[in-house]
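Hey,
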Amino acid sequence: MNIQLTNRIKQNARSFSKGQRLIAKYIEEHYDKVAFMTASKLGATVGVSESTVVRFATEIGYSGYPALQQAMQEMIRNRMTSVQRLEMTSTNIPLDRLLDSSMDQDIDIIRRTKESISHEEFYRAADALVKVKKVYIIGAGSSLAIATFLSYYFSLVFDSVQLISATSEAQILQQMVHIGEGDALVGISFPRYSKKAVKALKYASDRGATVVAITDSTLSPLTKYAEHVLLAKSDMVSFVDSLVGPMALINALIVTVAIKKKDEVANTLLNLETIWDEYGVYEKVEDKTDEERNV
């Protein structure tokens, strides 16, 4: 179990009530289940009231039960297999609550990302990216989706952008053979962290490139080789990695860099609009008249 959580329980054990001792024992033996239980469900499971569970969380130094629950979730994320995640969700969340539970969790992730991100570091990273000649981007596993999204929009902002295919380590480094000073690598990875992404960041750092890591914690292995670290909360929705926090951060980064390069970006977009119109890339949707709308 999480060392910090274990220490908090041990340090406060003597002052625990009988009910709190039952909670502590159950957490120590079933922390993987407790991480996704509501306070009321945990109380019902061990035979105490919901208020006793909440008091237990504050007794050991957390702001409330959600903070205790979050500490356990973050602790187990890097240890659980996909099968364990699926089984855990099936056990702890009723089928008719999955939609609301998933969306509520995503809303909470974005809120926590906004509250915890360093504005100073965000703008420093944006300033650093504005100055580079070429941007390399790598994201392995589920992070590939948001890496691809970032690559698409950065290609409208920078003259040269390369999305690294995270195949074998050798092939990754082959794609980065020309990286050096004046270039940047944006590496994206969340638990379970990609070893390939970590090695790519190390290679880019050794070559003198600007390295930006988008990850979830200062303890992430990506931070060791990054000049700029942008932290976004992520979480598990069953076996699915919820990346709405990183996605929101990336959206903000794209817009910020684009505004800092406004004249260049505006010219690129103007040329693209001309091409799209000339070749009929997009289907035009005509505005309806009031009469047509009422038909």
